[in-house]
Design goal:
The chain is α/β, with parallel strands linked by helices and 344 residues long. It is built from 14 helices and seven strands. InterPro entries: CRAL-TRIO_dom, CRAL-TRIO_dom_sf, CRAL/TRIO_N_dom, CRAL/TRIO_N_dom_sf, PI_Transfer_CRAL-TRIO.
């Protein structure tokens, strides 16, 4: 079925109804990007460009600006070059890790336990988060691009929320990993988390809101969500499953080292399917200026207000370093008002 897309003078295509129209938008972004170094060209597959377009309601200029910002970040931060030895100390308590099982849709599963924070370095915590995101993407099957977050609130208290880490986490997730989240399960969230969620909900569109599921171990109707998403025999017992293996840092380290060995080949494919044509003689550092990735002339300054609100809210539950005290509920609300806004 084909329908005329709904247009808006400020947001471009609010709804792109056919594959042909979507591909035309993807091709427009490719043209605006031009030639790229090999790694960045590999990143700019049709699927990747589509995620940025969806995050910007299929507005080509805004999606291109967002993608250029990510390409600049990736060229400088080099997330695909982070290795286990660099961040192993962050992982010791299992505060964030990729599970050894997938959901029923073959999506990677990141388990997050904010009460297990073990470091104070914002830089180190963000670096580890990025490592986990890259690892989750590496392990996705070819036809899947989203992941599941299981956020365990056992032992959680307000001291686990950091304004500084939350804001930086939100920036990284919403600006550089758009449309990567399929569903977020908030498991046994405490009552004092509700005001935080109610404040955050005001910034979420229905699509984003529907990605967040509250599950409580004592409520059969919410536990059905877990049964629908997971094989209960594989699911960690901490989330109502029958898997008692738990988190073992030694075994996890072995898995991550094996994945690290696979990462280079992920970024040096013999072919670049549906991606921007690579200019192989360019290095990322040498080509950024010539490719005009720093330019913001194709998008207004307020584009950043359209970044993902779901990622901001989710990131507030991640492990933290600079803490909000239990008597500082207004501090929680301040987390909810950074400058950025977009659909997740």
């Amino acid at each position: 079925m084909s329908a005329s897309p709904n247009k808006s003078s400020s947001n471009g295509l609010q709804k792109t109804s056919t594959a042909k129209e979507q591909q035309a938008k993807i091709n427009e972004v490719k043209k605006l990007l031009g030639q790229l170094p090999e790694k960045l060209a590999i990143y700019c597959s049709d699927a990747s460009i589509s995620r940025y377009l969806r995050a910007r309601n299929w507005n080509v200029k805004k999606a291109t600006k967002m993608l250029k910002d990510t390409l600049k970040w990736r060229a400088e931060y080099k997330p695909e070059e982070i290795r286990w030895e660099e961040i192993a100390h962050e992982a010791e308590t299992g505060k964030i890790y990729r599970s050894n099982y997938f959901d029923k849709h073959e999506r990677s599963v990141l388990v997050m336990r904010p009460s297990c924070q073990n470091t104070k370095s914002t830089k180190g915590q963000i670096r580890y988060l990025v490592y986990c995101m890259e690892n989750a993407v590496l392990n996705l099957p070819p036809d899947q691009e989203q992941m599941v977050w299981l956020i365990d609130f056992h032992g959680f208290n307000l001291s686990n929320i950091s304004l500084k880490v939350t804001r930086e986490t939100a920036h990284v997730l919403q600006d550089h990993y758009p449309e990567r989240l399929g569903v977020a399960i908030l498991y046994n969230a405490p009552k004092f988390f509700e005001p935080f969620w109610l404040a955050a909900k005001a910034f979420l569109d229905p699509k984003t809101y529907n990605k967040v599921k509250f599950v409580y171990s004592g409520e059969a109707n919410t536990m059905k969500i877990m049964e629908d998403l997971f094989d209960i025999d594989e699911l960690d017992c901490a989330f109502g499953g029958r898997n008692n293996s738990g988190f073992d840092i030694s075994k996890y380290a072995e898995r991550m080292r094996d994945d690290d060995k696979r990462m280079p080949s992920f970024w040096t494919r013999g072919s670049t399917p549906s991606a921007v044509v690579p200019q192989q003689h360019l290095t990322a550092a040498a080509s950024l200026d010539s490719l005009n990735l720093f330019s913001d002339s194709d998008s207004s300054d307020n584009d950043r207000t359209e970044s993902s609100q779901l990622d901001r809210r989710d990131s507030a539950t991640l492990p933290a370093g600079d803490h909000i005290g239990a008597k500082d509920p207004e501090g929680i609300l301040r987390v909810l008002s950074p400058d950025q806004k977009a659909a997740a």
